[in-house]
Amino acid sequence: MADSSESGAFNDAPALEASGIAKHFAGTIALDDADFSCRRGEVHVLLGANGAGKSTLVKILCGVQPPDAGTIRLAGEPVKLENPIRAAELGVAAVFQELSLAPHLTVAENIMLAHEPTGPLGQIRGRELRRRVTELFEQIGIDHIKPNTLTGRLTLADQQLVEIAKALSHDPKTLIVDEGTSALGQEEVRRLFDLLGRLRERGTAIIFISHRMAEVREIADRLTVFRNGTNVGTVDAADMDESHLVELMLGERIEQSFPERAPRPTDNDILLDVDHLSAGELLHDISFQLRRGEVLGIAGLEGQGQGDLLLALFGMVRRLSGDVRVAGKPVNLGSPWKAIRAGFALIPEDRKTQGLLQPQSLRENIALASLKNLSRGGLIDRARERRTADEGMKRMEIKAASMETPVAALSGGNQQKVVIAKWLETGGDIFLFYDPTRGVDVGTKRAFYELIGELARAGKAVMLYSTELSELVGVCHRVLVMNDRRIAETLEDTDITENAILAASLGVRERAGADAEPAATRNIGAAS
Amino acid sequence: MNNVSESKRAVALPSWLLQGVTISYILLVVLFALAAAINPHYASWDNIRNLLQIGAFIGVIAVGQTLVIITGQIDLSVPWNLTFSAILMATLISHGTSTPVAIAAALASGTLVGMFNSIGTAIFRIHSLVWTLGTNALMQGATLVYTHAQPPKVDVPPFIRALGAGNLWGIPVPLMVWIVAAIFALVILHQTRFGRYLYAIGNNESALFLSGVDSRKVYLGAYAISGFCAALAGIMLTGYSSQTYLGMGSDYLLVPVAAVIIGGTNIMGGSGGYLGSISGAMIVVLLQSVLSTVQIQEAGKNIIFGSIIIVLLLLYGREKLSTH
């Protein structure tokens, strides 16, 4: 896209400028003398590994947390952003990775929350409220969500769109999008980028945080890299050198983005045999086999049943028909505990609400699913539990002060490792990864790939549902591409390319050659 | 490389030693010292023994209530579950049933009612505030129908009297029952798998479910224990007053809940423990005792009692906010 950073530059002062920002949390430095500025009419991408301070910076910029030191200027004027409402009034709005919507309110009510149109008695004018939201949706090109729908009924991707619409309802001069695309499918991302492009032309300053280089490459005008709480470099997108950026982010060079794959099993040791599995409207006639030591990818466009397939195998889907055998024995998938007994382990989509007991310790979280093995007559063997937690932490290289640290105090990547450590303890054989690298930094992603390889080498079977094409290509031995809730195609070995997966997901017959346009390498599916 | 965001807090305390417990014990000591300063009689062994005896009834009920509240639920069926169990026992005795069988029947009845409570939470997913209050009304109705609003006049057997009012080596028997119940609660909460699941449900039921634990069974256990405790308290109260009467449970709707909350257990579930409920029960008893000796009208006492609970909850609430 054209560099439009000059088009809106009739005012010399940047739309948003933060200088000398410092923030400490109980002895930890989150931000240290950090500078950052964003011009009118530019998309400014903020990069950094987890814990680099970018989330803290964003929270300060939109008034969620006050800085310990430093000044923030909007269009040259020093301001105090005491709270998010004040920040919105001053023209700073944010979209966060974690959704902040009330599930029992309608879409329209959520979007207009705290700035509803009111009548003379302070009553909310419902019709006007819906009219404004309809108008907003028209402006930003959302046509498939009804303002009257209960928000909790929407898919994660649609909720993310509502979140973005909510931020835009304030008509912000500066828009912060923190991991806003992580739940979106290709089409929604495209729509979002079109929208951001239009906002950019109108002179909105956009701060964009993403871990997907393909997106960054496409949308960025400038990039700023944070490391250890400070700005370590700002570059124009035109001068961007990706390996240099990664170096800046990590402070060390990563040679290749994917570790060596575990060898593909050659014997015919079939661990999982799924035969004509169907589930009402959710899954149609799914058949495949999975060997020990194999990594099987599940790909497809958004909502093609990838997630439901994993959930069905984990006993979370009712009215299943068909046969599922583990190591030759038929298994009953009526509930998670039956699935676990059969050897399944699920690393769920949303670790915050589904995977972990946030206020409880690492020890308790790691032991949770295997307490039966760690106790005698209902009494927990504390020593064994501690040993288990310790082994889990070492094996997953979880960085924490101690095993008594509450999980809530860990970074996202480390939290994800806790979920996996938990399953390693149950002796699970078939690991179902439900989009595990969403919203985690480059270093943690790599640790994930290594772990998947390690599981495969140890004779476990892995199913990886991912929304990142490059990941499926880099990690899997075989990829099932789903379309319309059935398996459309199975790709093996060297046939697994981003182009091939995309073509199969779209139902394209002749596959594009190796020199297909790079836009096709964007991520494709998302949570269903 | 990631430790910037991680080392914010490194708490090495067991979950049951969190702030609320400490506050409640400090408060108990301060309250007791104040009471003793105003009236030295308070520090006498006779009085302390008396307070512990009264506290035992609340304390026993609070065992079940603590378990239920840790799951994020509440048991408001205690008053009439307790009364029904006690009257059932008295009726059986008046018809010549042996004491052990009558006691067992009362405990079984209480436990069954508790299990009925879990149906609402675990299967129908109706908030326990509503469902257990419904159970309470149901048991009230059952009691009235069963007794024709006329509890049986019985000669309470000596064993039951001893449970409620006896002394052994100078120590009240109800206190001994309480101590056993307290040990039971502490072991359950901190040493068993079931206890761990109670906290897990309170924090995040779906995480527990996805870890392969049938959370319905955990609710069943918590409510069954709560029902058992209510019945046990009913038996002890029968012994204490040497009779059963329709209003015998009326003090135990919210007082045990207050004891649990004052003891630092989070009303939303997930944290706290029975250690705090012990001091919570004693604070409640001490407050009631002090208020009953000063010359204030009943309404005034209620206002003071309520205000103190609100102030305490605010104190704990601040604690939570500041740690975020």
**Could you report the average pLDDT of chain B, rounded to the nearest whole number?**
87
Q: Helix and strand string of chain B, N-terminal first? A: HHHHHHHEEHHHHHH
Tell me about the largest β-sheet of chain B: 2 strands, antiparallel
Number of domains of chain B: 1
Quick one: overall form of chain B? globular
Q: Uncertain segments of chain B of ≥5 residues (pLDDT<50)?
A: 1-17, 319-324
> In order across it, which strands form the biggest sheet of chain B?
1-2
Biggest contact: A-B, 60 and 37 residues
Indicate the structural class of chain B: mainly alpha
Strand order of the largest sheet of chain A: 6-7-8-3-9-10
Q: What is the percent of helical residues of chain B? A: over 70%
CATH class identity of the domain at 1-91 and 172-255 in chain A:
Alpha Beta
Cα radius of gyration of chain A in angstroms: 24 Å
Largest sheet of chain A: 6 strands, mixed
Provide the CATH topology of the domain at 1-91 and 172-255 in chain A: Rossmann fold
Approximate strand percentage of chain B: under 5%
Oligomer: heterodimer
Q: Count of helices of chain B?
A: 13
CATH architecture of the domain at 1-91 and 172-255 in chain A: 3-Layer(aba) Sandwich
Family (chain B): Belongs to the binding-protein-dependent transport system permease family. AraH/RbsC subfamily.
Subcellular location (chain B): Cell inner membrane
Organism (chain B): Salinisphaera hydrothermalis (strain C41B8)
InterPro entries (chain B): ABC_transp_permease
